[in-house]
Design brief:
mainly alpha; 80% helix
């Protein structure tokens, strides 16, 4: 979804992040993005007790996603090191876990749905890394990439301020999209290997 916007308006991303990516260490940015993800997870948990926390969680999710864009741009300017790439991807996975643990632990969320969603998200990311190991090309993007998921999670948080059930419906949507993304990436990898 966001890939289509990026292709249609290639300068939009650069205009949004250029001022902040000039002299920032990408590892520092990745670390702060992770902190925002942890805060989002905590707010998703506490949203059950006060729905305003859902809105705060959504803001933290958007900050996490914005910093993820900045760290990628900063890495290009600094020269992407293998360690920076490793740290970025590791903190992205830890961020996914922190966000979804907060959602899963929310008493409103059926644990089965939350954990299945978390597992599927991690499997989709794993396929990208596995493709890189096997084909020397990382398969990213496609259906329900991380940026798309973050937008859906943020929207879910904002909507949950008015209706707590949006946490469940939003997570179900992400689960369904993650299953489709897993199948799509599997076929893309198969095509690259055959």
């Amino acid at each position: 979804m966001l890939e289509l916007i990026d292709r249609a308006y290639p300068s939009l991303r650069k205009d949004l992040i250029k001022p902040l990516s000039k002299k920032i260490n990408p590892n520092t940015v990745s670390f702060f993005a992770f902190i925002f993800a942890v805060l989002a997870g905590l707010c998703f948990y506490y949203g059950f007790y006060n729905p305003l926390y859902y809105g705060l969680a959504a803001i933290f999710i958007l900050l996490n996603g914005y910093l993820d864009l900045i760290d990628n741009e900063a890495a290009k300017k600094y020269g992407k090191s293998k360690y920076s790439d490793f740290l970025d991807h590791s903190l992205d996975r830890l961020s996914d876990i922190a966000i979804f643990l907060g959602i899963v632990m929310n008493p409103m969320m059926p644990m089965e749905i939350g954990f299945m969603t978390l597992v599927m998200i991690l499997l989709v990311s794993y396929l990208g890394a596995e493709a890189q190991a096997m084909t020397k090309k990382r398969i990213i993007g496609g259906l329900a990439c991380r940026a798309d998921r973050l937008i859906i999670i943020a929207a879910m948080g904002f909507l949950a301020v008015a209706s707590r059930f949006m946490i469940v419906w939003g997570t179900l949507l992400i689960l369904i999209l993650a299953v489709f993304a897993f199948v799509e990436r599997s076929y893309r990898i198969k095509g690259a290997l055959i």
